[in-house]
Amino acid sequence: MSEPCTESVEASGAMVTGDYLISGITGIGKTPVVQAFAAAKLAQSRPVVILDIGRSYLDFCRAQGGTYVRPGEDDWTTVEPYGKTPLYVCDFDFGFYSGSLPFPVARAIGVPDGLLVVDEVWNIRRRYPGLLDLVRMHVAGGGRFCVVGQSENDVAPFSGLSMRTRLLTLALAPEEV
Predict the structure, then answer these.
(1) Considering only CA atoms, which of 57, 2, 17 is closest in space to residue 146?
(2) From the first residue on, what is the mean pLDDT of each consecutive set of 10 residues in the chain (177 residues)?
(3) What is the pLDDT, as a whole number, of residue 22?
(4) Spatial contact of 167 and 151, defined as CB atoms under 8 Å apart
(5) Which residues fall within 8 angstroms of residue 25, CB to CB, at 6 or more apart?
(6) Could you please report the per-residue DSSP string of 55-120?
(7) For the chain, N or C: smaller number of CB within 10 Å?
(8) Cα gap 3→159, rounded to integer Å
(9) Beta-carbon neighbour count of residue 76 at 10 Å?
(10) What are phi and psi for residue 30, nearest 5 degrees?
(11) Which residues are CB-neighbours of 66 under 8 A, at least 6 positions away?
């Protein structure tokens, strides 16, 4: 796996030029880092797809004017557009899914310099068996990715998908432990 990333995390377009594997315990601040990356891509008018569990990005989706989708048992049954921004948040909170992503989301996969975020990767992989292939296809089209998990082991299967992959491990400062 890559060496841990020591650079600062800033919400600038130049910052999200590689692919990121982000690990850290619950509550350490992974979601705000990902939101900064996503906002930077949206500011460049690049599409962003976020695969999530637990509605962590619902407020972000609303604030950015994105589209929120949830899978049903057989298909994507709930689509809530909050604007026309190319942000698509797919929430797997309601079950498992093995089919293709809905059209507006699928259209954003593989777009050069677009961002695909997989949050809580260990749980998404259980609910969406084709996840690794989806990320691989996105990278092949020139897209960037950000995979988020609780530990380095969670994100490790994605480390070889790109030569630009950086590992960012978030941890408490020694005085906070």
Answers:
(1) 17
(2) 42 62 91 93 94 91 92 67 92 69 74 92 87 91 93 93 87 64
(3) 94
(4) no
(5) 150, 171
(6) STTHHHHHHHT-EEEEE-SSSEEEEEE-SSSSEEEEEGGG----SPPPHHHHHHTT-TT-EEEESS
(7) C
(8) 11
(9) 18
(10) -65, -45
(11) 48, 60, 82, 83, 85, 86, 87, 88, 89
- Say what the pLDDT of residue 12 is: 41
> What would the two tokens of residue 4 be?
């841990």
Could you tell me what percentage of the chain is helix, strand and coil, using 3-state DSSP and rounding each to the nearest 5?
Answer: 30, 25, 45
pTM of the model as a whole? 0.85
Amino acid at residue number 48: V
The pLDDT score that the predictor gives to residue 13 is: 41
Q: Which helix (H) or strand (E) holds 38?
A: helix 30-43
The pLDDT score that the predictor gives to residue 145 is 94
Strands of the 76-81 sheet, one edge to the other: 76-81, 67-71, 87-91, 48-52, 115-118, 144-149, 19-23, 165-169
**Which residues, 6+ apart, have CB-to-CB distance to 50 below 8 Å?**
34, 38, 57, 61, 87, 88, 89, 90, 117, 119
Report the alpha-carbon distance of residue 86 to residue 66 in Å, rounded.
6
Give the closest residue to 111 by CA, choosing from 145, 143, 146: 143
Say what the pLDDT of residue 173 is.
63
